[in-house]
């Protein structure tokens, strides 16, 4: 009898440990802080541009619900600098992939929400990445733009073909630039206050939770301006991460307790 009680308590302990490991540490905290940051940035709404995008170095630059598709896919959560090949002296980072993000069924792209290990206080514009012409990124190199407004936006654009950002990409070793995600995309911009998108590639937005929040603008397979309701999308996604994290812990605990119960009955 004493052995059964000991075994029951031991398995119960295993169940508790398993429930803690089902979703790795900091996911709940990250989702909460990410969501709180969005709510805190009340000036986001005041920064909206006429075409539905906003451009603010301290907020988020991304496309809206038309491209920012949210599906209830299983999250794959990875932690640690094993995701950041060749990274020097950086604290572990959190990378949460949403594997079913694929706006037009053209490419298998992931949405990545990344908690940065350090912030770049010298950046004058949003942190923008692209690797349509930087294939080395997929093999582990890290790129990041350090572009100011003058470099990023073209005053010559008249509403036709937006300028390509790719020639202005600057390689950097800053920890702001160490992301891991997949896909193939490019970014196109118009003059200040106007964002145009053109091309045949669909990419994945990046949301960075650091000292500054910045992001990735995404190319769709047509040219034009898109309406956006990204604030609610981002809040919903952060809430979903939080709910999924809690639900997985509860389910893991229930399963392990059930296993403990069956084991005690058998013995």
Structure description:
Belongs to the peptidase S1 family. CLIP subfamily. Residues 1-19 form the signal peptide. The protein has 267 residues and is α+β, with helices and mostly antiparallel strands. It has one domain (22-266). The protein is 30% helix and 8% strand. It is built from 5 helices and 6 strands; from the N terminus they run αααβββαβββα. Strands 1-2-3-6 form a 4-stranded mixed sheet, covered by helices on one side. It has a two-stranded antiparallel sheet with strand order 4-5. Helix 1 packs antiparallel against helix 5 (230-266). The protein is elongated, with a radius of gyration of 22 Å. The protein starts with a helix and ends with a helix. Residues 17-245 have low confidence and may be disordered.
In short:
One of its GO terms (biological process) is proteolysis. This protein has five helices and six strands.
Helices and strands in order:
Elements: H1 2-21, H2 27-40, H3 43-46, E1 76-79, E2 94-98, E3 111-115, H4 149-152, E4 163-164, E5 188-189, E6 206-209, H5 230-266
Parallel strand pairs: 3-6
Antiparallel strand pairs: 1-2, 2-3, 4-5
Helix pairs in contact: 1-5, 2-5
